[in-house]
Amino acid sequence: MSELKRRMGLFQLTMYGVGLILGAGIYVLIGEAVGFAGDSVWIAFALGSVVALFAGFSYAELTSVFPKAAAEYVFIKNAFKNNFFAFVIGWLTAITSIITAATVALGFGGYFAEFVDIPIIISAIGLLVILSIVNFVGIRESAWTNTIFTVIEAAGLILIIIIGFTISNPEPVNYTESPTGFTGIAIAFVLIFFAFIGFEDMANVAEEVKKPKKTLPRAIILSVVISGIIYVLVSLAVVRVVSWEELSTSAAPMAFVAERGLGSGAHILLSSIALFAITNTVLITLVAGSRIFYGMAREKVFPVILKKIHFKTKTPWIAVLVIMITSIAFTFIGDIVIIANIAVFAIVITFAAVNLAVIVLRYTEPDIERKFKVPINIGKFPILPLFGVGISIYMAFQFEIEVVLVGVGIIGAGIIVFILTKKRKSVL
Fold first, then answer.
1. Structural domain containing residue 270
2. How many separate domains does the chain show?
């Protein structure tokens, strides 16, 4: 039997989505963001919430029509009837999952080194192996592990909010102050968008969700809204406790805020919670990445061996193994901020394609059943996806040239794989 088993309901899937979003990004990148946006960093998070919600609406509509693994590939293929374009977007999503898992695992190694004297690379590899075993055991076990970790990491952020709004600041905060004006807010917005990505991976576990056409859209919207509210509150709170100038120099900004508010013991507590947050991000990325490989193998654009399902755990075990090995290989890449921008660059392209797919399908498949539709329409035309495409294009022009070159290189590698795969099929 080669089918995944449906085990996730609305609660688990929403927690899965919140866990995807409330990951390492907010714990690591908020310090960098305030350096650009100052006390107005909350505006960057509010903008991120809006953009994520636009994309979330589009994912919600498309998953209500095509609840399949390798979601982005399926969306683009059905909308544009173009295997090449669909492959490039699917490839971009798969590789991004691998790079994100590897880089965040290195972040875990850095935090873990504060508690145990173990080389960062060893900790990172150990984490990837352990979480790949959890991934192999099954989606239900992964989902419950994620639920526990999500509660822990959300508790850490809620603690920061409580500290920020209950401990008085000797100087009033000007929430419209930015050291470099709107330019700084825009730079911070692009950077912190890494903290929002992840909810799109909910679509890639569609075949393990109960009543996916109804459950997926609801869970996607809920997870984006819940996470966005928490993020904005956190960004308002941190600058009430620590000045943005101080916060921007901290390598562990959340732990620094907690220490300033509650003492040195809170630093250890928040560092520990950060470990859970990072672990959760890696786990869910590995789960979603393996399902992308599985889905694209079933569509016969990746080697078919990747679609093999283990007879006992009902998980795509070959795909789980492949993403573990490739993620371990990528742990030799460093700087989390640079990789975060590479991941955002790839996701921005994907979001533009997905938003465009919603618009195209409204005209090419007007009568197809949609359990959920993006709100605000003029006739058949959906307005929000158009804004989503425009914002994605704007964001694509905000990256450093090095980030763009790496992103283009990843796309180029995908094109080579596509050509080689096509040639192999023609020979066979």
1. 10-427
2. 1
Nearest to 28 by CA among 346, 374, 339, 369: 339
Nearest to 291 by CA among 140, 94, 114: 94
- Note whether residue 2 is domain-resident: no
CATH number at residue 177: 1.20.1740.10
Percentage helix, strand, coil for the chain under 3-state DSSP, each rounded to 5: 80, 0, 20
Task: Quote the DSSP letter at residue 198.
Answer: T
Structure confidence by residue, pLDDT tens digits, 13-42: 888 788 778 766 787 778 888 999 999 999
Q: Are 154 and 147 in contact (CB under 8 A)?
A: no
User: Rounded to whole angstroms, what are the CA distances from 357 to 85, 211, 290, 364, 365?
Assistant: 12, 23, 24, 10, 11
Q: What are phi and psi of 382, to 5 degrees?
A: -85, 125
Q: What is the pTM of this model?
A: 0.82
Residue for token digits 């539709």?
373
Find out whether 73 and 294 touch, Cβ atoms under 8 Å: no
Under-70 pLDDT residues of the chain: 1-7, 23-24, 69-70, 138-143, 145-146, 168-171, 204, 251, 311, 333-336, 424-428
pLDDT tens-digit readout, 234-252: 999 999 999 899 998 876 7
Residue 187 lies in a domain: yes
Between CA 213 and CA 207 the distance in angstroms is 10
